[in-house]
Design a protein that fits this description.
homooctamer, alpha/beta, 9 helices
């Protein structure tokens, strides 16, 4: 298990991360961490490793692209002084190409996406104990689907950035792909993007596996 | 893993089970299984054992006692023809002694509790492949606390019934007790009864461990 | 133009047809015909052929399958004595296989779908001046997609029924396929099923072309 | 068809244009173009000319007069750099004379109306590929009706401005007049101003006819 | 002044009468008489003739035609044993011809209107001290307007019935016509049917003048 | 009739005046004048003297005392340039002594009341054609009632100010007193302050009688 | 202190008693006893005499008269088998004479009031350990006020019934009268009927004094 | 009785004090003092000592700690110039250690608590006639419970401060402890913190006893 006692874990992203978290800081009583994968990660850490006292803070905001993360990076990441940081961004960066194809200014190109992500990561990494980069995803089995294809390209950019800086890389798209061998996308998300509890569990399990979580612990 | 391919799992109980499930049957799209431990069990089964295609139905109703279960046993359990059945009842049976002490007709005695539970179980067990009985609980560290003490007695009754009929017994109270070595009750539930996500995860993990769930699977 | 002066046109279906229509009869002031393709058909008939005085009644109900249509066929179709009838059903018949895969009783098999549709059509056709059968659809470009594939099969059943009884056949799936050469599904429907105005216009145009609507009229 | 590939079409006006559009810019997912004639124009362009990729932006605001347009002309028209622009204004300019007759400061005189409209048009026309001026209207058959009469005068002013600058002129009043040969005003609008879907279709058809839309296309 | 001390005055009609009155009987505290002309009549009787102690009951129901009145005549008029009765019905009987022209079953013909009205009046008149028949109206200055014209014909039927049975006849249309010499219809009602306070005052004044109300009294 | 053609009448006061009027200026469509006595005055002027085209503006604000009027006198009275002005203030000035007896700073003394009222009136009178001062009131028959007694004293102050400046004086308390010979206070206002329609009619009639309104006109 | 250990106290009445209590039985968690004097009595009994374990049930219903009590006497009093019963009824019996003076059928005469009350009391008294009759009241200092006067007469009837059957009599009107030596009615109730917390405390104190409550106890 | 005629009593604290009071000052009509113990104190003072005319102001704010009191001490206490002041703070100071154990910055240490409280008291005491310090509490019978234990320590700090400055000290925890001999915590508060009416009465009675309230007065 890579997270040490007393670690502060900040998880940032878009609506998949947000899920009704508290503002301005997504933690504390009354479902401060929201109801998505962040709350599952938090609950699974707390119940299997109660002695570690890991503090999880949800900083997701619905609709965000990497450009939006950039605008709030100082207040929403750096000022929080996280020990561990996870980032899952890119769904909206890609999606806007497909649901608002004519509104070009809402599209984030692969170049802008990758360079911005790298720049953000470089700003914060020196002060981190651990960094986790998760791919954006589309819950779609067909790799030739246009949006899935572009999402895969952005996921490859995440991988490149992770390798470049030595971060933990989590391929969420690959995890959903495994599920799609057994279930159709509609079982996880009506719009192939916003998951139900089972879909959020896919993300939480992938994240925890990547940081060395021992599932059999405290059983 | 005890649950076989294509099993139908019915989970019945009170508000801890209910958690906003769909009526009359707690399953299907739009959070049909609610947002509590049932949805966590469902999500964990689906993601670790996608090939088993286990169908989970939440039949909890807030405020229920074992007397209420008895009134709806035919329509809400037997008619559903479950393969596996889990029961977690008793919190309200005990609680009313403490928050409505003078309203005697709202109290369920230990005798009524145990005999009714046994009778319900005997009605349905012959047609089941598996039966899981979970104790009621109070998230309270002090075993001398009056309500905790009575809850423990009702939990013992659950154990006796489980042994009598050969059911899987899950000691939820014991699981919360382990957590209370590290955290105060308020971290899991403001009123020591209705858990947040971490508290529901305690229940879900205990249930799954009891039915042989392999946590490292599909990792 | 096939619809004669003073015709009564009843359009029945599921949520795609319904779109907030008035109950029990979907017509009249205050958006009685709803806000979907039925209202577009109605508006296009009224503005291009004001002298025909065609009366359009929306009888769609969200979530309906062909089994549901069967249950309300007498009151909702036959008793209305339509001159023309359009039916667009089948999306939910197929969808439940994919978003509630384990709830088998919510699935309508191809056999039940086709035989029920035929039976309904045969009951009402003798008293009609015209019958239009429209295929169900999934706004998805990949014909190998599992749900699209099954939808196509149900669409073929519609075609067979149409040929058998000599009804006007409208291939809505084919119309959306043409659009998908230019746009991704997300431009028409976030969940690939419930269309925005542009998607409803695709349906309305297909229907009107099939009944000989003269677009250049009254221009 | 006059609109070229990739054109940006801005449609500005009052509540007839607005119809619940998104702010500050009326476009994009979640009914950004509203639910009125703008959304019909958008849907008809998209479905008949998918390859043109025309971008439609609704900039209507309920209650606006030409004086209000003047106040927001820079931010809401010029800054958007439209290729094509349509303007339908004047209903409120006239209406206030009739429903608030004593509140003189809410009345826009014919002189102010015409000169302001001309001035706005002259500011923006040099940078446009096409300009469409539509008349305000009252859905009232009687040309001697006091409000209809004044509306006709404002409509004549629109015509004069259109001729002066060489814009496409669309006589919406004339289109409704044709309809009123067959239907009473109440079929289109309870208050003779805010149209239902059929009324909005009258406007959309008139606009599209004026810009050379080929209705039979892609049929 | 024709109404005697202690009279019970029942006023029945459609939405113009109703105006949010209490159900099942439109009287008593908390605006039981609604907020329309009935409440003005009640307030003017109470303040100018406090000693008469006249009891006013509003029995209007929105959307009603004379056919609806017929269905509730026993419970809503006869059982109340009124001393005085006023009826203002017919707007919806006419209006449906114009806003739902194709839904023929919602239209009340002049014949049905007149004969039903006469029949209702004859049933109740023997037990009344006074009967007031008010015409339906359209706040429209042009007597050649199609709906105004038909409304005038229904008004003439009211006059014939009034003469036949010797009832007090009040020509509400004529009263609004006088107002329309000075104001456009929009000053009284956006849809020319549902009046604002000034429009309700026109009705209340006409009613009171017809029953001999002394305006200068108690001044 | 004292109000001349085209007069602008501003009526200012507290919640009795306000009654849900439009902000910032209480006039125009959609019940801009509110639903209280101001709307009755407006409706009675409009229907009896349509040719005068009198413009009524409601500037009441709930809870106001004379001190509050003073704070908004410039923007809410002087800047409007009224021809006629009516003031009805003082109920809250007195009431606070009785429902918040210990909160001394919420009480307006008779001295402050009278001197402030005089000062306000003197500021605006030179530019007026007519000024109407109405007394505050308590709908209570017993002149020895403590609150009624104090209200009478404030009413006397209104009278003194009216005489001093030559304004029209309207004794609303006296009007309600007449009514209380026949009815108990509860018939007009549950709390003896906020009138129902009949109570507002008492005020409206008193105001109109004071300005020479001819009730029999246009009958 | 007259109430014995384990007594069941039922308090019945109108809106003053009701105050948002739980239905069908006004007791138990979540403010089952409402928020008025019943909850104060309950709280004062519980805190001063915790060992007595007195069970209080609120059976008030807003708007009730003695006639309404009669209709629900069996289910709402007798079936509950109270040890002690308190009744406070009559405010609405009197009030309707004053706020709905013309609706005679809503008035309960003194004769009906007294005879019904006596009959109800006689039905239940044999099975009671204690009966408390409280007068209705009007928070009005002037004994010559018409409504106060009539309320006093109904209060005298309560006294006669209490004497006749040997019940504890509590003169709530007299208690409020004492308060009115120091405060105006508005300090306790805007409408002189529905009290604030201080007004409810007046009632609770009077009731408790009448049953021998020792205020200094457990201090 | 220590409070003199005309005293102004300010009661400050957290949500237990607040209970829906009016802002910015918690007094006056419409439940300005809230619905908790402050309103009970106010009602009991008003009804037993009406002649004293004591003015009670509720300045509680939910969630407050002593650090929050410090931030608003000038505007919310000193500027109000109270004669008597009561303070009940500390529950949140302690609670956050237990329900948000990892969010260290939300915890108020015993040292900060005591020194801040002392400092606040010293600022205001010179201008007071009386000061009452009440302990924070947890409605929990077990003195070894971790949160109860810490709450007791903070309560001891209150006692020390009270002794140091000569303030009236009220041990609310001790009062609840007495109640817990007879009832379980759930009878007073589901979460052992936010009391129902009975729990608020415990606080109100303790406060009043401490200031010499004579319960038998005005009986």
């Amino acid at each position: 298990m890579k997270l040490e006692t007393g670690s502060k874990l900040v998880m940032i992203g878009d609506s998949i991360t947000d899920c009704g978290r508290k503002h301005p800081y997504g933690e504390g009583i009354f479902e401060g961490v929201g109801k998505g994968y962040v709350s599952l990660v938090d609950a699974l850490l707390e119940t299997a490793y109660p002695e570690l006292q890991i503090r999880t803070i949800n900083m997701g905001i619905g609709g965000n692209t990497v450009r939006d993360l950039s605008n709030r990076w100082k207040t929403d990441v750096i000022d929080l002084k996280p020990d561990w940081l996870s980032i899952m961004i890119g769904i909206n960066d890609v999606w806007r190409h497909f649901d608002e194809p004519k509104i070009k200014e809402s599209h984030i190109s692969l170049e802008e996406y990758e360079s911005t992500l790298l720049q953000l990561v470089e700003q914060v990494q020196p002060s981190l104990k651990g960094l986790v980069l998760m791919t954006p995803f589309l819950i779609e089995a067909n790799p030739e689907d246009a949006m899935r294809k572009q999402m895969d390209e952005y996921g490859m950019a995440v991988k490149r950035v992770a390798e470049q800086v030595g971060a933990v890389f989590v391929d969420i798209q690959a995890e959903f792909n495994k599920m799609l061998d057994y279930y159709y996308s509609g079982t996880f998300a009506g719009d192939r993007v916003h998951p139900n509890m089972a879909g959020h569990m896919v993300i939480a399990r992938a994240f925890l596996n990547a940081v060395g979580y021992d599932w059999s612990r405290n059983g």
